[in-house]
Amino acid sequence: MAKTNTKIKIAAAANRLFSEHGFAEPGVEAIREAADVSIRTLYKHYPSKNAMIVAALAYRHKAYLAHLRKNSPSAPGSAAIAHLFQCVAVWMSGDHARGCLFLQALAAYPGSTTIINEVERNKSGVRAEIARRVPAHNQAIIPILFLLHEGVTAAASSVGAKVAAENAIAAANRLLAGNDLPPG
Q: What's the mean per-residue pLDDT of the chain?
């Protein structure tokens, strides 16, 4: 197996374990076993657990953006924004239903510059993906749509991913139409 494929295999296994168990429980041995590599190979590619966490987050970032882009309408507007929130609902209904792994990593390792950088890269990528879907004359709503996105990922476990996404789509449509949102 090529070096790159081994690195991806390890990152994917770490992503899966951290998503399922959080960051405290899976140790290096669990990651090694899940990736089906030797300890030497694991440490050759990722010399610390922190490096394994960053690799898992980078893997997840790429997978999440690919998920959001799959079958996305090419033209900006309500259909493209609705598609984004529908994709978030699908993501949060599956194996990722435990909330935002990036924010969980930040909470678990608040002083890690490499993790902070990976979280910022992810959130910046999500904002860019939202911006791509917003018509030029509505760019001022991008920060609100980003907050709606974050709210859907957080609320999915308590109200259900579909309900959270439907509410976000309704709010986004009101914003796109230039209507104020109803009070709390």
A: 93
Asked whether 161 and 89 are in contact (CB, 8 A), the reply is: yes
Tell me whether residue 67 is exposed, middle or buried, using C-beta atoms within 10 angstroms of its C-beta: 0 to 12, 13 to 18, 19 or more: middle
Which has the closest alpha carbon to 61: 144, 123, 6, 117?
123
Question: Do 25 and 108 form a contact (C-beta atoms < 8 A)?
Answer: no
Contact between 82 and 17 under an 8 Å Cβ cutoff? The reply is: no
How far is Cα 57 from Cα 64, in angstroms, rounded to an integer?
10
Cα–Cα distance, 31 to 15 (Å, whole number): 9
Calpha distance 68→112 (Å, rounded)? 27
Q: Is residue 93 a contact partner of residue 161, using CB atoms and an 8 Å limit?
A: yes
pLDDT 10s digits, 70-94: 999 999 999 999 999 999 999 999 7
pTM of the model: 0.91
Residue 47 φ then ψ, to 5°: -75, 0
